[in-house]
């Protein structure tokens, strides 16, 4: 036994000697990479953990020094290798290289050999560099590929670090005027779960696209438009991921960098995270009860379309690779978002737990119990929820068209303000139809997504709902006239009204109401 133990230790030591190194030289739109590993196969990941679809980032790789290509994402090398990478993205899940800016999500740029060996990178720029990787001289290193791949790198001559407090900062080339609000929210989130964690960086950039955020273990990367209104909510969402997904995660959500990883629990990982972020905004005073009710109404409205009857919350989670992450204009007819449904489940869970524990416990206690398990199953989620007073989870998670509205109606009044009013069942932007509800008057009349409305009753004007109209539309360059009769709206616009002691436990005010915005006519 001693001999075998000695061999195991020595074998382990030998493995740790190996490491992969990369030298990165950025230029406008491209990145040059010099790599060094061992003779054998290197593998480029095909997806980015936290973003559930196959990106095939290796499509951007142009090799000019390697031995042979084994498959789409595998190459045989003799030790050293070189490639250039097309990095003209705007997406923080990928790689961005401009004349004065560099952002690297390492999992999108760097291949791996042994996942358990050390990985290091050197960045050939004289700019400021921010990363959570450990600095070793000129190198930035991670003890294994997962740590290395989960640590973004941002660099620019214009880069600055905005300090939130001693442990939290924002790395950005732009301004961030809401530091004090974010500081209050972080303080609340840190009070929910153990916060003896490493320092944390928000990598932030403004753009002409709302690309949202992606979580990392000790950081997050966020790209939004200049006028985004719910910025603090987004920051709070990504920040809570440092616990919920990075330190608390579904047991079956294993990281396989080449293949899809399936779980029915993304409603916990994402939807409940969004609810906790929402709760932290209320508790910090950043979001008042009226605005919180409007936000909740907007989310609940997304569950009023046919997809709610055709897909369960569990299915939405498991099928995200081909459904939510590849959603098209018809998605509200065929599916739901585990973000939206999970958020509403979080609200329901919070109400139920507080009701059954005289407001002395909340959904935070659910997460504290989940944190003790770390890698959880649905059985764990159900057991903890039931122990705190939230039941009927099977019905809510696995049933299509679950009684979410009925259950939520126990805690607040739900009014469909457009129910039975005349409607066509379409959404229109710049006179182009962008959505058609299944079995709506527009659907039955033969209208299609992409139809451009040229005239209404042979007059060039904006469409408005009335008993009957004659539409002149352009479809693929052909003019058509379609008669459209209004029908009864099934109910999509929601007003929420809440009041009482239990309501105040969650929303911090005795009474409030809010109505969502709805574009369907």
TrEMBL record:
Record key words, sorted: Hydrolase, Metalloprotease, Protease
A GO molecular function held by the record: metallopeptidase activity
Superkingdom, taxonomy of origin: Archaea
Any Gene Ontology biological process: proteolysis
Identification of the protein by name: Putative metalloprotease with PDZ domain
Domain PDZ: 413-457
Organism, as annotated: Sulfurisphaera ohwakuensis
């Amino acid at each position: 036994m001693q001999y075998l133990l000695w061999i195991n230790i020595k074998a382990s030591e030998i493995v740790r000697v190996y490491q992969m190194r990369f030298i990165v030289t950025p230029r406008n739109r491209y990145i040059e990479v010099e790599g060094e590993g061992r003779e054998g196969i290197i593998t480029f990941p095909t997806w980015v953990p936290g973003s559930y679809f196959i990106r095939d980032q290796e499509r951007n790789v142009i090799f000019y020094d390697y031995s042979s290509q084994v498959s789409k994402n595998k190459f045989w090398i003799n030790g050293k290798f070189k490639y250039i990478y097309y990095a003209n993205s705007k997406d923080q899940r990928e790689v961005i290289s401009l004349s004065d800016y560099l952002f690297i999500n390492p999992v999108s740029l760097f291949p791996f050999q042994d996942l358990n060996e050390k990985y290091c990178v050197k960045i050939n720029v004289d700019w400021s560099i921010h990363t959570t990787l450990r600095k070793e001289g000129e190198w930035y290193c991670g003890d294994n590929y997962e740590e290395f791949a989960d640590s973004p790198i941002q660099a620019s001559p214009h880069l600055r670090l905005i300090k939130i407090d001693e442990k939290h900062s924002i790395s950005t080339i732009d301004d961030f005027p809401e530091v004090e609000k974010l500081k209050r929210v972080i303080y609340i989130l840190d009070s929910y779960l153990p916060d003896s964690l490493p320092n944390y960086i928000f990598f932030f950039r403004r753009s002409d696209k709302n690309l949202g955020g992606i979580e990392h273990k000790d950081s997050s990367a966020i790209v939004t438009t200049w006028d985004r209104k719910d910025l603090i909510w987004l920051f709070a969402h990504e920040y809570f991921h440092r616990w919920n997904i990075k330190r608390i995660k579904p047991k079956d959500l294993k990281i396989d960098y080449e293949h899809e990883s399936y779980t029915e629990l993304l409603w916990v990982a994402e939807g409940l995270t969004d609810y906790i972020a929402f709760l932290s905004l209320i508790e910090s005073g950043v979001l008042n009860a009226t605005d919180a009710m409007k936000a909740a109404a907007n989310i609940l409205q997304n569950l009023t379309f046919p997809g709610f009857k055709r897909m369960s919350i569990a299915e939405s989670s498991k099928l995200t690779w081909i459904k939510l992450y590849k959603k098209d204009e018809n998605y509200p007819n065929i599916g739901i978002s585990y973000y939206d449904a999970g958020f509403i489940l979080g609200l329901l869970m919070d109400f139920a737990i507080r009701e059954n524990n005289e407001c002395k416990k909340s959904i935070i206690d659910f997460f504290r119990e989940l944190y003790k398990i770390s890698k959880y199953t649905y059985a764990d989620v159900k057991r903890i929820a039931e122990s705190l007073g939230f039941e009927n989870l099977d019905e809510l998670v696995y049933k299509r068209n679950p009684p979410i509205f009925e259950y939520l109606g126990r805690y607040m009044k739900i009014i469909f303000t457009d129910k039975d009013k005349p409607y066509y069942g379409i959404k229109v932007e710049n006179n182009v139809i962008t959505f058609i509800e299944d079995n709506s008057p527009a659907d039955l009349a033969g209208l299609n997504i992409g139809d451009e409305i040229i005239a209404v009753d042979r007059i060039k004007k904006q469409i408005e709902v009335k008993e009957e109209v004659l539409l002149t539309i352009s479809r693929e360059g052909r003019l058509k006239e379609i008669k459209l009769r209004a029908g009864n709206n099934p109910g999509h616009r929601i007003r929420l009204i809440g009041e009482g002691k239990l309501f105040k436990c969650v929303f911090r005010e005795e009474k409030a109401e809010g109505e969502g915005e709805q574009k369907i006519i």
